[in-house]
Amino acid sequence: LVLPYLENLRTTRLDEEQRVLIDVMASNLTNIGSSFARQLSSWKTKLTPAEIQVADLLRLGRRTKEIAALLKVSPSAVSFHRNNIRAKLSLTRTATNLVSYLRVVEESSGSRLPPPARTRLRPARKASAPAGGSRRTDRATAEP
Fold first, then answer.
1. Is the dihedral of CA 16, 7, 72, 29 positive or negative?
2. Could you give the CA distance from residue 39 to residue 54 in angstroms, rounded to a whole number?
3. Is 46 helix (H, G, I), strand (E, B) or coil?
4. In angstroms, what CA-CA distances link 80 with 64, 73, 85, 103, 104?
5. In DSSP terms, which residues pair with 120 in a beta bridge?
6. Residue 115's pLDDT band (boundaries 50, 70, 90)?
7. Distance between CA atoms of 2 and 74, rounded to whole angstroms?
8. pTM for the full model?
9. CA quadruple 28, 34, 35, 41: dihedral positive or negative?
10. What's the distance, CA 36 to chain centroid?
């Protein structure tokens, strides 16, 4: 009942942001009973409404800057929400890509979350000082 109206609206003069919003609404209406929607509402580590919006847009393939423009927030706010989502889904310090994980959740029909990849990322090692002592930073004292 709603999708034909969205299609009619799509044929009117809309800017790119409005077209993207219509695409998101159409996708969400089409998938209203999907496993992804059920998963979002049933995760025991509840996501905030903003995190749910960001997760949904990420799943649809939107980039951070696009999400920021659609939600009228800064890209750093979107990154903040992405980090919170990763933490709540136990994806921190793993090799699992958030977007890929969200798409797997969408495709899974069960009520359980797929486990994150077991590969842990190691923190970057600190650069050590050269063996000969301190580094020389003053080029004016160097001989030509």
1. negative
2. 15
3. coil
4. 11, 11, 9, 20, 22
5. 94
6. low
7. 31
8. 0.57
9. positive
10. 15
Show the beta-strand stretches assigned E in 6-142.
Answer: none
Q: Are 41 and 30 in contact (CB under 8 A)?
A: no
- The dihedral region occupied by 21, where left means phi > 0, alpha psi between -120 and 50, and beta the remainder, is alpha
C-alpha 83/C-alpha 73 separation (Å) is 16
* Residue where the block lists tokens 């959740």: 105
Helices (H) and strands (E) in the chain, counts: 7, 0
Q: Which residue's structure tokens are 């009942």?
A: 1
Residue 72 has which token pair?
A: 């009228």
Total count of residues recorded for the chain: 144
What whole-number distance in Å separates Cα of residue 123 and Cα of residue 35?
35
CA dist., res. 84 & res. 96, Å (int): 15
Over residues 32-46, the pLDDT tens digits come to: 766 666 666 665 457
User: What 3-state DSSP class applies to 66?
Assistant: helix
